[in-house]
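S., here's the first fold you wanted:
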Amino acid sequence: MTAKKKRRKPLLLSHTRPPSTNKTPSLSSQATRSLIRKHHTLKKQLHTAASNGDIVSTEKVQAQLEAFGGLQKYQEASIRGQSSERGGDSSKVLMEWLSELILEHKRHDPAELGRLRMLEVGALKVDNACSRSGIFDVTRIDLHSQHPNIQTQDFMQMPVPSPKMLEEDGFDVVSLSLVVNFVGDAFSRGEMLKRVSSFLRSSRESSKDEARTSFPALFLVLPAPCVTNSRYLDEDRLEGIMISLGYVKIRRKLGKKLVYYLWRYEGIGTKEMQIVSFKKQEIRPGASRNNFSIVLQR
């Protein structure tokens, strides 16, 4: 009976919690990172083969992905990477920044800020720092949810609130934590960043609480090498892209593995006048560089 269960492909929604240590052997941090990198490599190869119309290569890489464990194994590794004992909850950085903003303006209790609406794209867990803070009403989405409190939803297909309903249905913060780097091509990454503002509510400029005027905002987290060691993207180019989209950088943190940003959305007025195209252009040559890039089209 046990052998028969092992041969089955488990349903994603059956895994409503991260695997516990007495059910699944814990992977080392190095093994977890290796598994995640392998998945990203295969996804990149799959996208390249499909874009080139190479059916044989596409089927071959797809078979490798399935044999490797596919998205489920990647999600399990990502959940392990976000475990508290490994310090992997990126939303802790956002909460640290929010606390700083509150203290800067002589507010001592984050709960006094009032409830903010957050859209967490690519959510894997429901008990991260933002969820526990009491500040955010969180809407969580993921392409393949593994928890009943995470909606199965593709952000690029998510219905955009109408202008009349934006204040009610929109969000104060959109979180793209380790999401943009998972998108298969540079153009689609740019389109994802462009789409974020469609879900952001208007700024709180009329509020006397300056900490609250830090919103609406985008919380963006990328692997550090995406901006520190890419041929096509560095800090200046990323900031240029974000400024073109109407954002101002208000917080940044560079860690050993990740880089974190908080971008406040200020609007772009007439899009035709202000959005600038950013093509894939080599800005930092070198054999050891990676090829991560973001393309933005008007």
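And the second, which I think is the more interesting of the pair:
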Amino acid sequence: MRVFVTGAAGFIGRATVQELIQNGHQVLGLVRKDEQAQALTKAGGEPLMGDLKDIESLKTGAKAADGVIHLAFVHDFQDFSGACATDRAAIEAMGEVLAGTGKPLIIASGTLGCPKGVLATEDTEPERGHPMMDRAKSADMVYSLSKEKGIRGCVIRYSPTVHGAGDWGFIPRLIDGCRQKGAAVYTGDGSARWPAVHREDAAVLTRLVLEKGRAGATYNAVAEQSVAMKDIIGLIGKTLQLPVESQSAEEAMETLGFIGMVVSWDNPTSSDKTQKELGWHPTRPGLLADIEANYLS
């Protein structure tokens, strides 16, 4: 299958490109920089210069492909609503090209959009009404495209930490914040839980959804359904020889910024349905082992 991948130069994107090529697919990857184009070519893919605001580049990529994996997102937490609007415009453009073809359109979402404090499943409805939950509208769009426009649209909810060597997401930012503070900080009693998945396992799942996913389905990219934040922070404190402290969510936001808010969210999530339906079996190291091996040197 010839696959158009947005975010092909990103942390999840690079692993997904490798996974696709190793399993016989061809990759056309959206990239923004010459060095990204060179890296993608070296990996065996074909670069297409553009970005999420360049609608014509998105349409060109979708037209040239047998399916689309949409991983790119503008991670602007100062204007998250604007970032989500850009995401929907990109999905609309690619969906317009794919309409009536039955081709797959796979988009990335996140488990953090699910209600807090309860075990979320693939059937759990996302939270609504909060600006940080605006990304759920992208998933709504894909479900509608599947029903009304003859597209095999699927949504993958990725864990808040898709981890592995070279990660630049939440965990590195959390570690940097603790270093700057001079203390390893968690909120409340530290019982907030995050799901986690290694990026190579996430890449395998992304390929399987492309190949076998059902139209209108949601899949959870979760290998570990609940890692306690106190265990994550305890490991950071122990390894970096920092005191471990509890703070209120408000204090943590002052200390860690935006990351101080999301580490207080209790987000246990199951992927049982995903694993059974697609035959996905995560095999890579868990989050705590990966942090110890790759994040704290």
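Why I say that: The first strand starts at residue 2 and ends at 6. DSSP finds twelve helices and twelve strands in the chain.

Talk tomorrow,
H.
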